[in-house]
Amino acid sequence: MRAHLHTGWRHIPAEARGMAAALGNFDGVHLGHAHLLHTLHTARPDLGLAVVTFEPHPRELFRPQDPPFRLTLAEERLAALSALGVRHVFQIPFDAAFSAMTAERFVTDVLHEGLGLRHLACGADFAFGHRRGGNAAFLAERAEELGIGMTTVPALADEGGPYSSTRIRRLLQDGYPERAAEELGRPWAIRGVVQHGDKRGRLLGFPTANVPLGRHLEPARGVYAVTVRLPDGRTWPGVANIGRRPTIDDGQESRLEVHLLDFEGDLYGQTLSVALHTLLREERRFEGLDALKAQIAEDAATARSYLDRLVRAGAFPQA
């Protein structure tokens, strides 16, 4: 069941108040986040499960010069949280005015009075309020004074350390989507609306859907075996290129171009979710279009073989 999205903290309906809520950015909604939510639900199974998060990510406000870094945008994050049993997502607009709110006001005005929360959970490193003036200890102290329960959850970790969005970003940038998927609990996906491109893929015999990366993190450039979730819910195998197309040398920004294997239909204007499964090869320049066309055919065959093995293993349904 899809969680109810509330894009603010004022005028919350009565049925959404009185929740147990986890606090954080939840970029990626990885296994560490799932652990936080599971611990919260175990502590207060009698209360509805909720999340308090922010949009945009605070880093986007404070460091706008940084390259895009998001693992999940708002719509994907909502879907992932819904899959974990979250009933309400309180998505607070993070702007300059909100960033100036003190830690004290955040607890009293937002969490207590605005949202009417009855129990809170966060990681031990959670910081909030103007200039990160509040931490988990401060939150626990103020929550107790206000009659709100509080659970501080130790980070889920493995031999490499705590699970984190930063660690997953690094895996994707280094070209290891399989390892990123292990920490996310699902393949990492880029979601976007198909735009008109230059039709070069069609001329090469491999028509592609052009999906802008937008605010998503740019993973390692190259060719990937992918699956594509269509608007009608079907999952379709494909091969995708992420990069700047050095053979064509069009000087454009990096883009995602995905060819759906054996697919016929018009996808322009539709929203696709493209999940990366494995990096087949790094981006490179070819001597000409004939060499590029031959390589694309080889990439498509390799992707088909790889994805067929996943289908036989039951990793995703056949389209």
UniProtKB/TrEMBL annotation:
GO molecular function terms noted in the UniProt entry: ATP binding; FMN adenylyltransferase activity; riboflavin kinase activity
Keywords from the UniProt entry: ATP-binding, FAD, Flavoprotein, FMN, Kinase, Multifunctional enzyme, Nucleotide-binding, Nucleotidyltransferase, Transferase
InterPro entries: FAD_synthase, Riboflavin_kinase, Riboflavin_kinase_bac, Riboflavin_kinase_bac/euk, Riboflavin_kinase_dom_sf, Rossmann-like_a/b/a_fold
Listed GO biological process terms: FAD biosynthetic process; FMN biosynthetic process; riboflavin biosynthetic process
CDD domains per record: FAD_synthetase_N (cd02064)
Gene3D superfamilies attached to this UniProt entry: HUPs, Riboflavin kinase-like
Catalytic reactions of this protein: FMN + ATP + H(+) = FAD + diphosphate; riboflavin + ATP = FMN + ADP + H(+)
Statement: the UniProt record of this protein carries the keyword Lyase: no
Protein's job: Catalyzes the phosphorylation of riboflavin to FMN followed by the adenylation of FMN to FAD.
Protein name as catalogued: Riboflavin biosynthesis protein
